[in-house]
Amino acid sequence: MSSKVLVAYASKMGATVGIADAIGDELRAHGHTVDVLDVAQVKDIEPYDAVVLGSALYMRRWRKEAVRFLRHNVDALRTRQVWLFHSGPVGPDKDQDEAMPAAVAHLAREVGATPAVTFAGSLDPATATGFLARRLATGNLAGDCRDWDKIKAWAADISAAIEASRRSTWHRPTRTAGYYLG
Ligand SMILES: Cc1cc2nc3c(=O)[nH]c(=O)nc-3n(C[C@H](O)[C@H](O)[C@H](O)COP(=O)(O)O)c2cc1C
User: Fold this and answer.
1) By alpha-carbon position, which residue is closest to atom 21 of ligand 1?
2) 61 CA from centroid of ligand 1 (Å)
3) Residue 58 Cβ contacting ligand 1 at under 6 Å
4) What residues does the Flavodoxin-like domain cover (predicted)?
């Protein structure tokens, strides 16, 4: 049976959108029904069984719309499986794990999510916006470091976790059955 999964992203220059799309494609390939949405466009998470949320990192922070989404949906997220990722490192440090910003770490604990996984990002001179980004995109940080195999493997793990949780729910005896059995 397929689960309905929301993959929500917060991106400034597009790299995180590509990561979210790849996660969505992999989950669909495993039979899930998936919406991949800009987090700012998400109105309601009630229809979803599980949520994947990712943000680009800027100056070690998440985009504010992603933090706002976590904060506004703490209660609903607590009753769902939630996975977090951030996209950032480029250039020589592309394989380095980034710590979650303190506010995000606090909210992740509130909703019962494991720490965010780090995916390498992309800094493209063609799409860099803002003085600093354009400047950085001319140096050794420029380039697309996104690791599609790592991203797909993570999405496949998410699919396995969703399926495992569904199986354990099916096999749990219901209270009604217990009453009948005395
Ligand atoms: C001004 C600026 C600041 C950045 N700060 C960080 C950072 O603190 N940590 C990090 O891992 N990556 C950082 N990056 C790299 C971006 O996170 C990376 O390019 C990311 O893939 C951008 O995602 P987006 O295209 O979805 O906005 C920074 C990039 C720029 C231009």
Assistant:
1) 121
2) 9
3) yes
4) 5-159
